[in-house]
Amino acid sequence: MQARIKKQIYIGVIISLVVGAIGTAIYFIRRKTTNTVDKKSAATSLNIEPKVAFPNDIIDAFDTFLNANAAAYGEMLMVYVSQGNREYTFKKGGASMDDYSGIASMGKYLAAAVIMSLVDEGKINLDASLSTYLPWIEGYSEYNQYTIRDILSHQTGIVADSAYDNNQNMNLDDSTRAIVNQYPFQSGIAYPIRYSSSSYKFAARVAEIVSGLKWEALFKERIAEKCDMKNTFFNRFTDNPDVGKGAQSSPSDFSFFF
Questions:
Q1: Residues whose CB is less than 8 angstroms from the CB of residue 67 and which lie 6 or more positions away in sequence, other chains included
Q2: Where are the domains of the chain?
C-alpha cells in the first residue's frame, strides 16, 4: 500500500515538473514573439520613422571587423549602430537583441534627456548654481560654483568616479553629500576640468527634488514609457542609481531612444 502511494507521488511530481517545464517554455516563446510584435506596433503608434540599412560596403566592413575581433569577446557580441534613419545590427552568440546589459556611459544620454525635459518645463534652470536646488551645498563654495549645464557638459572638477556611485545602502541625497565630504576641493589648488560620471548624481538629485519623484520613476515616466523601452533602467532595487554609468538596456530598446 505504501509502495503504491509512493509510486503515485513520484509520478505526480514528475508530471508536475514536465508540465511546469512546458509552461515555462511556452511563456518565454510567447514573450519573445510578443516583444517583437510589440516593438513593431509601438514604432507605428509612436510615429517612429522606420530605419533602413546602411549601404552594403559599410555593412560588409562592419561585419568583417566584428567577425575578426569576436574572439576577444568570447564570440558573444551584440552591436547596434544608428545614424539618422540608418541602422546596423550584428549578433553573434546566443544572446537576444531584447536581452539587457550594462551600457556604461551611454546612460548619460538617457539621464540628460530626463534633465532636459524638466528644463523645457521651466523646473530646472541650466545656469543656476547647485544650491538653488540643493541648499545644503551652499556652504561648499567650490561645488556650488557649478551648474547643471556644467555637469551635463563635463565642465566640473568633481571626481570622475566614487565609492558611493552605486552604494546600495544609500539614496541619491546620501551619496551626493558623501561625495562632497569625501572629495572636498582644497583652497589654493587648481582642479582640472574632468569627465565625471559621479557629477551626474547631483543633476539627478536636483531632478528628484523639482519633480517630487525618485529617479527611476522619473526616468520611467518621462523616457522609458514614452519610448516603449521595456528593458531599460538605471537601478530598480535602490534609490541610489549610478546615473552616470550604471544604466542597463537592450539593443532593441535603445534603438527606440535614437
A1: 92
A2: 2-101, 103-257
pTM of the prediction?
0.75
- Alpha-carbon distance values, 206 to 111, 115, 190, 249 (Å): 12, 9, 26, 24
Residue 5, pLDDT score: 43
Residue 162, Cβ neighbours under 10 Å: how many?
22
Amino acid (one-letter) located at 130: L
User: What does each C-alpha distance from 125 to 114, 146, 248 come to in angstroms?
Assistant: 14, 12, 28
The amino acid that residue 93 corresponds to is G
The three cell numbers of residue 171 are: 539614496
Topology annotation, domain 103-257: Beta-lactamase (3.40.710)
C-alpha cell at 134: 540643493
SS3 content of the chain, % helix, strand, coil (to 5): 55, 10, 40
pLDDT tens for 38-94 read 544 555 555 667 789 999 999 999 999 999 999 998 998 888 888 888 989 998 888
pLDDT at 50: 78
Please write the tens of the pLDDT for every residue from 192-236.
Answer: 899 999 999 999 999 999 999 999 999 999 999 999 999 999 988
Task: Please count the residues of the chain.
Answer: 258
